[in-house]
């Protein structure tokens, strides 16, 4: 900033200090070419207003204005005193004057309401409010106004650049090629959240192996569908399923304490003790997976309650959530893509439970997904989808979709949403 000094010598009784001037927008090239005018308050009888001053300076290009009151005043004037010393080189003596600093701001014609009221009347309500804020608003309101105007200019520039870039890409590749790229990207994005698929499997149970690393978050974190420690931890909570009675199943169905798939499969637990225990553990874990998919932002350390083993809660948090920063704290988030991942693993586990043929509509209702989304996941997992009559006792007895995992695996096809894009084109 450039600093110039301008002294005003008026009536000694007024105790008018010398004026130190700073220009906020750059260096002062020719101080001798600047003309100053000082205006004082006419309310000399008011002790609060009698010392108010407005300083105006004019150059060949711009006019500047500064004052010692209001939001534009320098706060340093009220915190300390300034003095100006004038040295007489002949006598070697210095005269000291009280000084006051003025910050000179450029006065732009756009900040002044035009005299032509017709132009003012043609302005929108938003523009009129902005003019009021410029003239009478607080410093906070003026900062917000300047910020909004700068953002509006930035958005216009960004939109123009994006539109031009999109037009260049369309001209270079063509619409058909772009649609094909979108379809391939959708398939790749879907495959990220699917369990490992062994296309060369010799039997259905080896396509999505129970021993494969079905849970991973960026990298493989387990060499089994459930690690031995995690599988062992399911023994406690799944014990209630092993010896469950038909009366208890009816009560749980009435209370809707578990998903429909689990309640239906509890009616058909095998008689063999080992197989019964294994299926009970799988059903309990599938039920907790579905309940976990309903969460969005997880703030608790044990979101599934005290009955869920700590090792299982830790696996769910690590495999099916992403970390996000919100309101000064780190939180776990279940996004739409991670909910798709949960649905894919629920389907894989249900296939092992149901001998590789499942009612997709039942799982769709349990997961609260749209039918098109559920069918996209099933087809991406190479299931053959067919129509099947809904099982008795289920809500809205209708034609359900049956998903079957059989060999040879069907060839992957574009989802329904991708086909719609092509038709629209």
Overview of the structural elements:
About 45% of the residues lie in helices and about 20% in strands. The chain has 15 helices and 13 strands. The strands form 3 sheets. Strands 1, 2, 3, 4, 5, 6 and 7 form a 7-stranded mixed sheet that branches. The protein has a 3-stranded antiparallel sheet with strand order 8-10-9. It has a 3-stranded antiparallel sheet with strand order 11-13-12. α7 crosses α10 and α10 packs antiparallel against α12. The longest helix is centred in the middle third of the chain and has 35 residues.
- In terms of DSSP E residues, the strand content is 15-25%
Average pLDDT taken over every residue: 78
Q: What count of domains describes the coordinates?
A: 3
Count, helices: 15
Order of helix and strand elements from N to C terminus = EEEEEHEEHHHHHHHHHEHEEHEHHEEH
In helices, the fraction of residues equals 40-55%
Q: Which class of secondary structure composition applies to the elements?
A: alpha+beta
**Distance linking N and C termini:** 59 Å
- How many strand segments? 13
Shape type: elongated
Give the uncertain stretches in residue-range form: 9-13, 213-224, 416-425
Largest sheet, described in full? 7 strands, mixed
User: Radius of gyration, Cα only, in angstroms?
Assistant: 38 Å
């Amino acid at each position: 900033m450039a600093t110039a000094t301008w002294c005003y010598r008026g009536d000694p009784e007024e105790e008018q200090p010398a004026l130190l001037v700073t220009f906020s927008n750059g260096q002062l090239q020719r101080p001798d070419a600047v003309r100053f005018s000082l205006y004082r308050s006419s309310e000399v009888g008011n002790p609060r207003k009698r010392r108010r001053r407005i300083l105006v300076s004019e150059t060949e290009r711009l006019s500047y204005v500064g004052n010692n009151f209001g939001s534009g005043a320098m706060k340093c004037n009220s915190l300390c005193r300034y003095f100006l010393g004038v040295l007489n080189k002949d006598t070697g003596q210095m005269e000291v004057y009280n000084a006051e600093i003025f910050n000179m701001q450029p006065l732009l014609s756009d900040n002044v309401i035009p005299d032509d009221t017709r132009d003012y009347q043609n302005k929108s309500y938003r523009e009129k409010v902005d003019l009021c804020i410029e003239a009478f608003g607080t410093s906070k309101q003026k900062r917000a106004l300047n910020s909004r105007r700068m953002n509006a200019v930035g958005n216009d520039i960004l939109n123009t650049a994006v539109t031009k870039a999109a037009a260049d890409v369309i001209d270079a590749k063509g619409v058909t090629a772009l649609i094909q790229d979108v379809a391939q990207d959708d398939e790749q994005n879907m495959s990220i959240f699917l369990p490992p698929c062994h296309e060369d499997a010799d039997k259905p149970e080896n396509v999505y192996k129970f021993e494969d690393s079905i849970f991973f978050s960026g990298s493989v974190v387990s060499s089994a569908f459930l690690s031995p420690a995690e599988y062992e931890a399911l023994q406690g909570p799944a014990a209630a399923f092993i010896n469950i009675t038909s009366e208890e199943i009816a009560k749980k169905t009435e209370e809707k304490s578990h998903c429909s798939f689990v309640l239906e499969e509890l009616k058909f637990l095998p008689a063999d003790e080992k197989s019964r225990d294994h299926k009970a553990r799988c059903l309990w874990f599938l039920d907790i997976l579905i309940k976990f998919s309903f969460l969005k932002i997880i703030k608790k350390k044990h979101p599934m309650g005290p009955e869920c083993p700590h090792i299982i809660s830790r696996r769910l948090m690590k495999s099916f959530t992403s970390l996000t920063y919100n309101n000064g704290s780190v939180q776990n988030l279940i996004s739409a893509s991670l909910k798709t991942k949960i649905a894919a693993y629920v389907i894989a586990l249900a296939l092992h439970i149901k001998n590789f043929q499942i009612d997709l509509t039942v799982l769709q209702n349990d997961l609260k997904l749209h039918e098109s989304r559920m069918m996209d996941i099933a087809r991406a997992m190479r299931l053959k989808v067919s129509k099947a009559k809904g099982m008795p006792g289920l809500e809205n007895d209708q034609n359900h979709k049956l998903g079957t995992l059989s060999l040879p695996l069907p060839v992957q096809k574009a989802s329904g949403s991708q086909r719609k894009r092509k038709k629209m084109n």
